[in-house]
Every structure is written in C-alpha cells, then in structure tokens.
Amino acid sequence: MTFTEVTKTFATSLPGTDSYVKLRNAMRTLIQEDPKNAAVYFLIFGFARTYVMLYEDQEISPTFAEDNQKLMLSYLNILDEALEKQDTESIYQALNKVVHEYENSKKVF
Predict the structure, then answer these.
(1) Segments of the chain scoring below 50 in pLDDT
(2) At what angle do helices 17-33 and 3-12 cross, to 10 degrees?
(3) What DSSP element (H or E) covers 87?
(4) Fewer C-beta within 10 Å: the chain N or C terminus?
(5) Beta-carbon neighbour count of residue 88 at 10 Å?
(6) What angle do CA 12, 89, 9 make, to 5 degrees?
C-alpha cells in the first residue's frame, strides 16, 4: 500500500466515518511500513481519528460529510505530491502548508 493508493481510495469512497476509519487504519500501517515519512502519516492519522471520535455517533448532513471529505482530500493531495518527489524539503514544506491551512480552517477534525 502506498500513500497515493490510500489517497485514491479515499477520493472514491463514500463520505462518512467509515472512510475515515479506513484512512486511519491505512495511516497506522504506513507508519509501520515507512517510518521515514511517519510524520506525514501521523498527521493524517490524527485528523482521521478525531473525525471518527467526533462524528461516528452523530447524524451529520451529506453536505457536511462531502465538504469535509473534500478538505481532507486537499490535504492528502498536498502531501501526496510532496511524497512523490521523495525530497525531504518538499515533504517538510507540505506538512507546514497542511498545518497552516488546518489552523486557518473551521477545524472540524
């Protein structure tokens, strides 16, 4: 499994907590399989875990779920592009970009 494969799977999955559970589990696996990039995987793991904790037992609107899936997908794409370059500086900049964007968002996860 690669980060790119996980990103594509998430992009085509139905919006909702089940997709975040699968994302969280995939990130846990990638942390073990690719410790060099564990910070990337741990950041997404944390977002996915929080989403599941907050919304798994709540009714949410389809629009809310879709909007948040798009937001998560934007983070995944930023990080995926950096990981594809296999350049430490690009990965570091991508992590900073995602954190900055998250801090300026509604912080729903």
Answers:
(1) none
(2) 180
(3) none
(4) N
(5) 11
(6) 10
pLDDT at 23: 98
Task: Note the pTM of the prediction, 2 decimals.
Answer: 0.96
3-state secondary structure of 107: coil
One-letter amino acid at 14 equals: L
Instruction: Calculate the CA 70 to chain-centre distance.
Output: 10
Residue pLDDT, tens place only, 73-102: 999 999 999 999 999 999 999 999 999 999
Structure tokens belonging to residue 54:
């907050």
In whole angstroms, give the CA distance from residue 2 to residue 6: 6
